[in-house]
Specification:
- The structure is a single chain.
- The chain is mostly helical.
- The chain has 13 helices and 2 strands, in the order H-H-H-H-H-H-H-E-E-H-H-H-H-H-H.
- Strands 1-2 form a two-stranded antiparallel ribbon.
- The chain is globular and about 85 Å long.
- It starts with a helix and ends in an 11-residue tail after the last helix.
Length: 326
């Protein structure tokens, strides 16, 4: 285990280096933030002073070298707009995004796996067909449109839930601000979390259904039934355990995607997370914040992949960590 983690950590450093180069060049080669940050009435002297203050007077390779030297010490640059460390801005918004993504994934798991199992065990029943029809809608409907419809129905027409913002927050363990510890915070969280969960809910339904139907045809399930085991034990021990192997992999990868692509949901519901910060930073070409956000997302994906590999080996003893390709 320790050797595997060390090897993956070394691979992660290489991946982060390559991604930092690609992201930095891709972001810093596009547009000119001075045109946005400096007043059009400013003279040439003011423009040159601002360019030098932001370090944009240096060639691109020199800017990357400065960025890389700072990155080794945890400094990913300072925001052009806020004049504060870019990484600090990202970490400040991270709890809101993580809370939204975790809640959305919890919704998808709690409802997706049981509904998919039901549809797999009774594929020809009315409920099974209705579940699969609903999953098709979850795949097909655009996230931004569903978000607007949720606001229209539950906020505007019915007035049950707030349409934007995070609501009041409470410090969890005295460190992390969360909103789910209060009733008003939960009301603010419900709509955006539901909107973000729909695609993954549909995905888990279809994945669980196909896994259940495939497992029911296997010899070990037939043998378990022949031994006289109850239907609940056959499904809970033999079928569900084998279903969870691909499901855990998809949950891990999709959780990273939830964090990375919560941008649309955060924008629609004005949720103050990392995605909303990214959109605001792109609008003003705040390059350090954009680069810091992308590298944080890459780091999260690397960590999630490591956890998924370890869980995969725990669920399936036939898979050893040395055999898992990182």
């Amino acid at each position: 285990m320790l050797v595997y983690v060390i090897r993956r950590s070394l691979q992660s450093v290489l991946v982060l280096f390559v991604m930092s180069l690609l992201v930095f060049v891709g972001v810093y080669a596009v547009g000119n933030p001075i045109d946005i940050l400096i007043s059009p009435q400013a003279d040439q002297i003011d423009r040159e002073r601002a360019i030098a203050a932001l370090g944009l007077d240096k060639p691109l390779w020199a800017q990357y070298a400065t960025f890389l030297s700072g990155a080794f010490g945890g400094d990913l640059g300072r925001s052009f707009v806020h004049s504060t460390p870019a990484l600090g801005l990202i970490l400040e918004r991270m709890p809101a995004t993580m809370e939204l993504a975790l809640t959305a994934m919890l919704f998808a798991i709690v409802f997706g796996i049981p509904l998919g199992l039901w549809a797999g065990l009774k594929p020809n029943g009315l409920a099974g067909r209705a579940i699969m029809t609903g999953s098709i809608l979850g795949f097909s409907l655009p996230t931004f449109w569903v978000g607007l419809m949720l606001i229209m129905v539950f906020s505007v027409e019915l007035g049950w839930l707030p349409s934007n913002g995070r609501g009041p927050t409470t410090l969890l363990l005295g460190l992390v601000p969360v909103s789910f510890l209060s009733v008003d915070g939960l009301r603010h969280l419900l709509l955006p979390a539901t909107n973000l969960a729909l695609f993954n809910l549909a995905l888990l339904i279809r994945l669980t259904r196909s896994g259940a139907q495939e497992s029911l045809l296997q010899d070990y399930v037939k043998f378990a039934r022949a031994k006289g085991l109850s239907n609940a034990r056959v499904i809970g021990v033999h079928v569900l355990r084998n279903i969870l192997i691909p499901v855990v992999t998809v949950i891990g990868l999709q959780f990273g995607s939830l964090i990375a692509f919560a941008i649309v949901t955060e924008s629609v519901f004005a949720w103050p997370g990392m995605g909303k910060l990214l959109i605001d930073s792109i609008a003003v070409l705040d390059r350090p914040v954009i680069v810091a956000y992308l590298l944080v997302i890459v780091t999260i994906f690397i960590f999630i992949n490591l956890v998924v590999d370890i869980l995969y080996s725990a669920l399936d003893p036939r898979v050893r960590l040395t055999d898992v390709k990182g």
